[in-house]
Amino acid sequence: MPLGLRRRAGRQRLLPFLERRHRLERRFKWAIAAITLAALSAALATSQAARDLVDAAATLPKRAELAVLRLVGVDRDDAYYRRLYRELRDEDWRRRRRQQIGTAVASLEQTDRDSPIFRRGFLRAAGLAPGMGLLRPGNFDRILLLSGLVYEPDDRGRSYRLKPDTRSVWVRKVDLGNANEGPMLLPDTPELRAAADAIGGIVVDDSVQVTNSWGLRGPEPDPDAPLRGLVLGDSFMQGMFLPEQSTPPALLERVLSDALKTRVALLNTAVAGYSAEQYYACLREFRGRFKPDFVVLSVFSNDFGGEDDGVPEGGGDWEEAGYWLRLIQLACREHDTMLVTVPVPSRTQVAATRSDYHYPGRLSTVIDTPAPYVINPLDDFINANIRLMSTGPVRPESSPLYNGHLDNDGHFSALGSRVWAESVGRRLSLLLRRRLDRVPAVFPNKALAAARE
Question: Are 266 and 230 in contact (CB under 8 A)?
């Protein structure tokens, strides 16, 4: 053997059949590991918490970039800063809503399982049972349970919308255990009425409504009317518990027609549970189809925060609401459409403590609107309430301008709707006359010239 070289020690080899068996065992173990990993990945992919975690992690680069912009002193009015900040807020809202919907789905399924047969029958007649009912974001930061026989999903901004050509009615004292309680808009069918009676629900017969072909409350739209207006709002403008002819937009339409001596068509896009985000989506949806000459934007305190935020006492998220309200303003300016904003007065402000410092007082901090285009009907409501409470042999227990007699409800009564329409109509007719003088081309019908005299 040459110097310096050693024979490499040989490795003892297994017999061929044993080596083959060990090789197969190793492959089997790798296959098991791969299958297990795939199963875990699938489980994580279907886990809401895991998806939320992944989504949150995906926003980390943007959050870091925003932190750097703040650190170096970039102005918050900078266009890039605002866009980045808004993207993060939108993602936070989407994640929060997904979590809330997951919780609501579990609650509804539990309610359906635990309910007696008569309640399960009601859930199905009402279109609220699992697989039938809609769980959609609304009322600023809540998840609402809605009848799938009355509403349909809308993923283009409105979250949900009323089905076209559908007859429905408000039902009080709806008790669904953990899922929901309170008045609900449900299909007006004999089956629903019988099922509601079985659970102690009360059908409000005067509140029957039939949507038009556009899926809105009111008559068929009239895009050829000489003067057209579009109303944005929530349950106050939709007319909760009210008949068709007594909703605020229906009454305002008549007030304006009488004042301006021409045919006025108001498109009522309001739906219960809508907030500023849905108002903007409604404007985008119907502006091109209806081509309004003016827009009435109705807001209420719950447009600026959730139930527990204490908006009248100074709480709430005015920044979030203000973002959507400013988009409405910009859209109206872009199309030369007159916009008036009308804060709904609450029953407490009218009949108890005025307390309007925060709502609607802070409205001017989130929208930049000349004084004539903000119509606050609070004083007209207070005056009307004084007259109504002091007339007649018996003093009413609560303000006749609101539905206090219906489970202490705080929405407008038919009398309240009329006060609202007359208050808004007085200012709006003045503004429309002035606009006619300044920009005659806005109103194609020359019959409106009489309104200038």
Answer: yes
